[in-house]
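Subgroup meeting minutes
Present: P.N., E.W., G.H.
Scribe: E.W.

1. P.N. recapped why we're keeping a running log of single-chain structure predictions: easier to compare across weeks, and new members can see raw inputs and outputs side by side.
2. G.H. added today's entry (275 aa).
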Amino acid sequence: MDLWVEEYQTKDMVIACRVKRTLHEEKTPFQELAVVDTDQFGRMLLLDNVIQTTIKDEFVYHEMISHVALNTHRSPAKVLVIGGGDGGVVREVVKHQSVEKVVHCEIDGAVIEAARKFLPEISCSLDHPKVEIIVDDGIKHVRDHKNSYDVIIIDSTDPVGPAEGLFSAAFYQDIFASLTDGGIFVAQTESPFFNGDLIKRIHQDVAGIFPLTRLYLANVPTYPGGLWTFTMGSKKYDPLQADHTQMAGLDTKYYSPDIHFSAFVLPPFVQALLK
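Output recorded in log:
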C-alpha cells in the first residue's frame, strides 16, 4: 500500500511525504500527535497533522533558535525553554558550559514521552543533570517567575490552538519581566513568504518592549517556504556585536560564527516587512 502524510501548509499548498510506517498515533488533551517514518526525511513528528521536526533537517532549526541568543549573551547561566517537547533545543542549550540550569516548560507531556521513545537523537539531553522538566503552561510560568532567566527560548508550534498566546504583546511583556538585566529572548516567527503580517506585528510588539530587536533567518526544508524567521528581543546585548571566540568549539551542523552574523543579512523583501 502506498501511504503518504500530507500537510496543508497554506490553504492552497500541500507538502506530502511517503510514509514507510506509522510509529505512533495519539490524541492528547491538547492536540493530535503522530510519529511516522518517511523515506525522504526519516522519522517525523506531527502535531495536528503539521510537521514539527524531522530527523533529517531538525538540526537547522534547533541550532539556530538556540546558539544565536546564547552566544550573544555574555554569560547565560539560567535558560528557559518554552515548548519544544521534542527536546532539540534542550540538547543544544546544554552544550554551553556557562549554562548552569535549563528549565524546560512544555504544556503537553505526551510530546516529551513520544520524543523520548521515537526520537532519541533529538531528545537525548532531556535527562541531563542541568535540565528540569516542567509540564505546564509556559505563559503562566513566565508570569510567575520575574527576573529569573538570562535567556528565554520560545520553541512554539504555529500561532493557533495552545500556542496562540505565545505570539501576543502581553506575553512578550511578561518575558521582559522574567528576564534578568542583560536578558535575551528568541522565538520562531514563521515564514516571510506566507506570514508577513504576523512577522511585522511581532517585530513591532517586541520593539515596543525591548531596547533592541533583531530578525534573522535560516533554511528549514520541511517548514512552509523553506525560509524561516526568528525574532530576538534583547535588553542589552546586540547579536551583531557578539564575541567570535565565544562561538568556538560547539558541535554543530548548521550554526557557525559566519552563519551567526550572516543570518541577520535580510533580503529586501524581508526588510520591507519590518518597515
